[in-house]
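DM from R.C. (forwarded with permission)

"hey, sorry to bug you on a friday — could you get me a structure for this? deadline for the figure draft is monday and I only need the backbone to look sensible"
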Amino acid sequence: MAENHPVGFQWVMEAREKGGKVIHVDPRFSRTSAMADYWLPLRPGSDIIFLGALINYTIEHKKYFKEYVCHYTNAPTILREDFQDTEELGGLFSGWDEQEKEYDPKTWLYEGSPYKNRSKRPGHAKAGGGHGKDRGGEAGDLGEHKEDMGLEHPRCIFQALKRHFARYTPEMVERSCGIPKEKFLEVAEVYTSASGPEKTGAICYAVGWTQHSKGVQIIRAAAILQLLLGNTGRPGGGVMALRGHATIQGSTDVPTLYDILPGYLPMPFFEEDSKSLEAYLKKHTSQTGWWHNFDKYAVSLLKAWYGDNATAENEFGFHFVPRVTGDHSEYGYWLDMAEGKLEGLFVMGQNPAVGSANGRLERKALAKLKWLVVRDFVETETASFWKDSPEVERGELDPAKIPTEIFFLPAAGHVEKEGTFTNTQRLLQFREKAIDPPEDCRSETWFMYHLGRRLKAKAAEQRNSRNAALNALAWDYNTHGVHAEPVVEEIIGEINGYRTADRTLVSGYKELKSDGSTACGCWIYSGVMPAPNENKARKREPKGRYGHGWGYAWPSDRRIMYNRASARPDGSPWSERKALVWWDADQKKWTGHDTPDFTQDKPPDYEPAKDAKGDDAIAGDKPFIMHPDGVGWIWVSSGLKDGPLPTHYEPLESLVTNPLYPEHDTNPAADKKESADNPYGHQQDERFPYILSTYRLTEHHTSGAMSRYLPHLAELQPELFAEISPQLAAEIGVENGDHMVITTMRGIVEARALVTERNKPLMIDGKMRNTICLPYQFGYKGVVTGVAPNDLLAISEEPNVRIMETKALVCHARKGRVPRGKQALDVLNSDLRRAA
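My reply, with the result:
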């Protein structure tokens, strides 16, 4: 966090100065470790063992916040009798279909919950994504279910959790993570003591947790720990995703992801329940909880897109929305590209030729396109792959035979355009334009608007069914200036939402309707601009302890989500020190230091009628209003593709056997995408005796395209290096500064050896294991050049969100250099033979 999110880390340092403890768990000693009270180096890929042991410690030592757990989580809920855990089935949950390589989550449901049969259209499950609201849909209605508030029933979730993590012990942490038992116990006591009415603790993570074949479940384990400790919905708590740059949060809210629509509404898939708007709404509308309003948000989105062409008679244009028909995630379409199934590609603000896994496969895939559009500040490796890539140099690609027509369009920088960024804390902040972009450089807003305008003009000349969606699209933005730049605040107003009758802006998402009388581009952002001259993202007048008045935090300028959990079930604060929102009995409303994340006039003792729907079905002491039962989910009964609880699996390439489930080394639901162009070493492959992990540098940005061209940054990090321990250096015969060669089944790179105590070998299962850490931000263009470390990585897909595994692979290393041209492939093959 200190290296990649230094501005945010300021607040960590302020907390430490006030007595807070900072614990850093990372294979590599970094600037964060230097500022932490505790540094725990662990083996990459063993995170769930570590977190599972913390969960086990919390339960066994009764460190959990019992009143919070009983009232605010599903820990008391009774499960079905036919559920079987990984402890009973050797690493699998009940419901596994070996032939289809997927789970049927029927047995994961609460006892008494109705089951919705899933679509069995071929390939549906493998096409599905996990970013949207309950993609599975099986738990939309939980029905009547039983609870044991004493947490003693053998089939209650708390007891299932206790049994599941019983073997995640300090001894297992020492054996598999490499963290000494005594050090783990010391840190476990420190962290789990941050619980109860007076204390909280926060967990911060980034791609070191997400980029694994079980990344979603790693973060689930953190969420379970926080729910047990009562650290969710309270000040100083939470699980915070540290986003990689300025508006990654914004690019999932108003998404660039293939499986969701704005506001985390699921994309319609090519299946029976998306043939009509009625069927789509029925699938995704919960009978209880806030998602009962799903129809209001979906219809208002369609009205924002299609305007007057979206009517009740044509299902508000629902048939215009494309369907997901397969794996349209990034790696899914890249593998399709490699097979010649894609004609063209837009690359805007990315550099996949060196910034994505298995760069050799991706660069060769680009040569199968008919056309490629690249928008960037500089000619990136992606734009010039056809003339100067390693594959051209090695003779694998011939520029004269590559059919891809490439259009390189210069882009404006972030100070050369205006608009909002959404940061890690969901805060929308409006950015003013400082200077005009030079020459032909244009903003993304300009490019997308004028591209859409031209496409609509072409579609208007051919009014056939293929062009119906383009012809229906509402695209009437005003422009200004010599280059006809769209008026950005008009777009913000459309995202905020308005009444279709008179275009007056709505004050928030509670005013949205399902009858077509409102339009809204992203329901969670509604309220950011409630009046034409009131863009709250522009505000810079912070007040109070949480900075209200500086920007706008979705939803409803709420700084801490689910903050009803910051008060006791009776509505009073857990403590004065941790007071956030509370029930004011005199005024009969929720009030406090933040916007209450709860119906303002719903009293704590409110009990819903048996037939109540939507928010009316959520009791006054149930803070997690997005869930149909109003509680935090320790147990996930549907919506995840690899189990209701996190389970340790080894990385897809690993030096060791799964210590808990040797019958199932790796996540059975993960997709390796293994092929001749994307090969793997086998588990415990002796050719590759070292762990490989990648990371980011402070001085370079993502693929390096924004930093490797800048002399002052290039000077700070002038050459690719590999961090290795002195023990590994001695083993392979290199000294600090020597050239070394790192090889995997996918590729070969040359780097300088940085021999350092920061990267310690760890004793794993009785054998000392070394990790080689490579910064991934290098490529072969710019002031600083070198081989792209991402060439070493495999393309793979975690089953829920299809993220690749980059933090835990295996490699071979030796002293030496890699020759240029065709000889590089000869050296790669020679190294593989020598290692074998």
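R.C.: lifesaver. The mean pLDDT is 94.
me: no worries. The radius of gyration is 27 Å.
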